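Supplementary Note 2. Why include the ligand at all?

Several targets in our set were suspected to adopt different conformations when bound, so apo predictions alone were not considered sufficient. For every target with a known small-molecule partner we therefore ran a joint prediction. The input for pyridoxal-5'-phosphate is given below.
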Amino acid sequence: MRWHPHLWHPTTQVATSPEPFQVKRARGCVLELSDGRRLIDAISSWWVTLHGHGEPAIAAAIGRQALELEQVIFANFSHEPAEQLATRLAALTGLERLFFSDNGSTAVEVALKIAWQWWRNQGSERRQLIAFEGAYHGDTFGAMALGDRSIFTAPYDTLLFDVARIPWPHTHWGDTDVEQREAQALHALEQAVATPTAAVILEPLIQGASGMHMVRPAFLRAVQQRVRASGALLIADEVMTGFGRTGALFASQRAGIQPDLIALSKGLTGGFLPMGATLASERLYQGFISQEPAHTFFHGHSFTANPLGCAAALASLDLLQHNPERYQQFESRHTPLLEELAGHPLVKRVRCLGTVAAFELDAGSTSYLNPIGKQLQRHCLEQGVYLRPLGNVVYLLPPLGISEAQLQQCYAAIHTALMALQR
Ligand SMILES: Cc1ncc(COP(=O)(O)O)c(C=O)c1O
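The joint prediction is reproduced in token form.
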């Protein structure tokens, strides 16, 4: 095997990374490699594979749709799959208007642009945006600017607009001073919103890319209360947390908040096709209806509302809604297995919410570049389990359809890897 002469892989340093695995086929939670090896996909292929790979109902829905209408320009045209999906997501989120794009970053860009222009359309001078420490909202420029500065953004930092940044008081099992950190964060937020603010963006309940950093629902309700009091808009980036990942259909629901805008992607199509969706309240939508052409939302992507993606999303929603216990009860599957790990001397700051279980390897540095995660990854791969730690943060985020035996295999692989690391 060698690196392909014509490909460029994402977030990959070729000089120091092992070559990619050649994958031939995937079914359920298992990736089948061309050399015959089988790996459990314990992170749902970057958090997108919601039910499992090759889910037959979604594959069939895409096939049927492809024979009817594969794509059409979405300015001047509408179609049934988009209308059905918008109607269903509006009912599920309480946000009446859906704007389509292509991925998580663009779903966030759209939310940001709607929020920003909505104030401009009203002649408002609100110019501040607020985001949280550790936030990750995507790799396009607006999304990068909203995200915290990191090795990912460093080359572009001078091009990124400023946002006010508030601490994210993430917690874990046995945390003793979370109330104090929450109070400090809320105080910082109160001070920040004293400046006229257009919007506040957050990843509800779990910041994903910064290391599965979980906050308590009550903190988010307190944030919402301060945001509402200031008149700013609240944007929930549910690109990772949407579609059952936190044990409720949406993390906003589990947290008890009602944002003005929600960005969705990843699990939207069950992980089959790239698609983003930004849901907005009717109040925001009405702010763009005007005889004044400049009040139009001038944003659009070639593949807006791609019918195949819509058909996949509808089939995925059917699966979710017919089997709610699959996501509602996932946390109770993780918990006993995670409790066994929690006693290991290398395991620190254990946390779990819905389908997401995480802990930190006690390795000094918490940097994304900390090599200990890669070492653990190698040991797990030898045991047929694919993980992708974030620095020293190890997490499991498996497809909902993972069997009990497969889940136990993931935890057993981590146990064995921890023993090897301890030697
Ligand atoms: C919370 C959140 N927002 C946005 C994104 C960006 O999504 P995409 O990679 O599809 O552009 C991600 C990706 O991991 C994410 O976790």
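The chain is about 35% helix and 15% strand. The pocket of pyridoxal-5'-phosphate is lined by residues 103-105, 108, 136-138, 203, 208-209, 237, 239-240, 265 (CB under 6 Å). Comparable summaries for the other entries are listed in the accompanying table.
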